[in-house]
Amino acid sequence: MDALVAKGSGKIAVGFGGNPKEKSAVRGGPSFELIFNIDHYLRKKGIRDNFELTFFAPMEKPGARMGKKALTATQKMFDKKNIGKRFGKKIKTFTEKGVLFEDGSELTSDITMFISAGTGSAILKNSDLTLSDSGFLKIDDYCQVVNHPNVFAIGDAAAFEGPQWAAKQGHIAEKMGEIAAYNIIKKEQNSHKRKSYKEYLSILCVMDTGTGASFVYRNDKKQVMIPLPIVGHWMKQGWGKYARWTKLKQFPKIV
Ligand SMILES: Cc1cc2nc3c(=O)[nH]c(=O)nc-3n(C[C@H](O)[C@H](O)[C@H](O)COP(=O)(O)OP(=O)(O)OC[C@H]3O[C@@H](n4cnc5c(N)ncnc54)[C@H](O)[C@@H]3O)c2cc1C
């Protein structure tokens, strides 16, 4: 990136992929954040007009899982910031020149950043645990691995079932941890009480755009998108530092 900026012009492509067998194993948020931040960075340097930025994804409406409001706002932002779109095209391969799509068309770029969709870890594939088609741990509503009464799985390692828009996220991993612990305790107490992770599925993100951010929340009942100009960018920066410092035990955990 530094070399391209020093050159003063170029083409940058950013995108993400989907896993048709595991719709929740997708990670689009960071790619949106990256392209908006690259746009902001180039504008600050006064060289944005010399760069061609393009966002690519195999689905027709990337970001649709965030909800209608967020999708519309994101599309508007692409147009406002003059970011090209290549949507609904399956990716065949990446080349030195850029991205080659299955329909034979090409997207030329000097830098390509792509976040692939996930599949289960090799360690799971080599285990005797019950897996989904894409290699994640198959769990019931209570986070217990199917056919393994004493094994529970939470977070990214587990195959999510539920709404089409569900996505593997940090707050869901934490909630599943609580739920799995609760269900294990109840099981040990011979109680029939159980909690289901599906009740807590939601999308929650603060999408940083460099100049601000958008707060996005979605569950089965509501879809919220709140623009946070200027302050949102600093909130996200602050959250990153808070998360890091609390993990390193350099700052007390408040939430
Ligand atoms: C770039 C990016 C941005 C994201 N942004 C957001 C966001 O804004 N909001 C949000 O909610 N979520 C976000 N996520 C998703 C979130 O980070 C994950 O959903 C969450 O971390 C899942 O938690 P986990 O504990 O299941 O897995 P992880 O956090 O991946 O933890 C798994 C741990 O297991 C370790 N491990 C792996 N294999 C082995 C092994 N064989 N032996 C021992 N240890 C092993 C790994 O090193 C890792 O520490 C983002 C993810 C990425 C990559």
Report on the structure:
Helix content is 29%, strand content 23%. The chain contains six helices and twelve strands. By secondary structure, it is α/β, with parallel strands linked by helices. It folds into two domains: 8-117, FAD/NAD(P)-binding domain; 122-200, FAD/NAD(P)-binding domain. The structure holds flavin-adenine dinucleotide. Flavin-adenine dinucleotide binds at residues 27, 29-30, 121, 123, 155-157, 168-171, 173, 205.
Short description:
This protein is an alpha/beta fold and 255 residues long. 29% of the residues lie in helices and 23% in strands.
Keywords for this structure?
6 helices, 29% helix, 3-stranded antiparallel sheet, single chain, FAD/NAD(P)-binding domain, binds flavin-adenine dinucleotide, 255 residues, 4-stranded parallel sheet, alpha/beta, globular, 23% strand
Distance between the termini: 36 Å
Provide the succession of SSEs. Answer: HEHEHEEEEEHEEHEEEH
Number of helices: 6
Please compute the radius of gyration using only Cα atoms: 20 Å
**What would you call the quaternary organization?**
single chain
Number of domains: 2
- Main beta sheet strand tally, sense and closure: 4 strands, parallel
Q: What's the count of strands?
A: 12
CATH architecture call of the largest domain:
3-Layer(bba) Sandwich
Strand line-up of the largest beta sheet: 3-2-1-7
Helix content: 25-40%
Unreliable residue stretches: none
Name the CATH class of the largest domain: Alpha Beta
Query: Could you tell me the mean pLDDT?
Result: 94
CATH topology of the largest domain: FAD/NAD(P)-binding domain
